[in-house]
Design brief:
This protein is α/β, with parallel strands linked by helices and 244 residues long. 29% of the residues lie in helices and 19% in strands. The protein contains six helices and ten strands; from the N terminus they run βββαβααβαββββαβα. The chain has helices at 37-47, 61-69, 89-104, 123-134, 198-204, 228-243; strands at 11-16, 31-32, 35-36, 53-57, 110-113, 141-146, 156-158, 164-166, 188-197, 212-216. It starts with 10 loop residues before the first strand and ends with a helix.
Length: 244
């Protein structure tokens, strides 16, 4: 890719951070390494050499202020109808891209979603995922993935009658008992970075589209904050990095 900014697509990074959180109340404002959780994702976006604008989509005034303090734009407050437990990623993403187009006459070419619950992501992974999409003009989106430790082809589910049957099926005899190398390749999303063309989002209301490319990461990049223990692990990891 050219270093000339004019040759690059308009890349919008969006940090979604609604006020409600049932598992860990006020999670997005919870201090991690001395800063609100969402700040770590905002900073990663701001350090990217490919991101044009970084915004926070939130319904919460306190979160909005924290985002502004660390350099993100908060050009609007997310409508209540897009802030509940049933709202999807496509809902707030579509709203953000449409609002910027309609209210500021600014249209993103590419949207990058950076969930605050992955504060350990690296700038090079964000840029790498963006480059992966830009390099393939036929692709709709890029999803960061890792190879899971356990293949779902070796997993089971329980029937209504109480018997076990394979979770997934293949043409491999007794797949659950054979070597993993014989099983189909499986990649699991890790939530670190999601990139989608704005045109795909606006035309289909989907953050995936039909042609999804993987951005494969090392298996240890598979950390998402969901519990108190996760916060402690992330705190220790960031403390270690700060000493390097």
């Amino acid at each position: 890719m050219e270093n000339n900014r004019s040759q690059l697509p308009h890349v919008l990074a969006i940090i979604p951070a609604r006020g409600g959180s049932k598992g860990l109340p006020r999670k997005n404002l919870r201090l991690l390494a001395g800063e609100p959780l969402l700040v770590h994702s905002v900073r990663t976006a701001l350090l990217s050499g490919l991101v044009t604008r970084t915004i926070c989509s939130t319904d919460d005034p306190e979160i909005a202020e924290a985002a502004r303090q660390c350099g993100a734009e908060v050009p609007f407050m997310r409508p209540a109808g897009l802030s509940g437990d049933t709202a999807t990623d496509a809902d707030y993403a579509f709203h953000a891209v449409s609002w910027l187009r309609n209210e500021q006459d600014w249209l993103a070419d590419v949207l990058v979603i950076l969930w605050p619950t992955c504060p350990l992501r690296r700038v090079e992974d964000v840029d790498g995922a963006i480059r992966t999409l830009v390099a393939d003009p036929t692709a709709d989106s890029v999803v960061s993935v890792v190879r899971p430790n356990k293949s779902p082809y070796k997993m089971w589910r329980r029937t209504n009658q109480g018997y076990l049957v394979p979770l997934l099926t293949s043409d491999i005899f007794e797949q659950y008992a054979g070597p993993r190398q014989r099983l189909p390749e499986v990649l699991a999303p890790n939530g670190y970075v999601h990139v989608v063309r704005a045109a795909t989002l606006l035309q289909s209301s989907s953050i995936l589209g039909l042609k999804v490319l993987p951005f494969e990461m090392d298996s240890h990049h598979n950390f998402d904050i969901d519990t108190e223990e996760d916060f402690q692990i992330a705190e220790a990891e960031l403390r270690t990095k700060s000493k390097l």
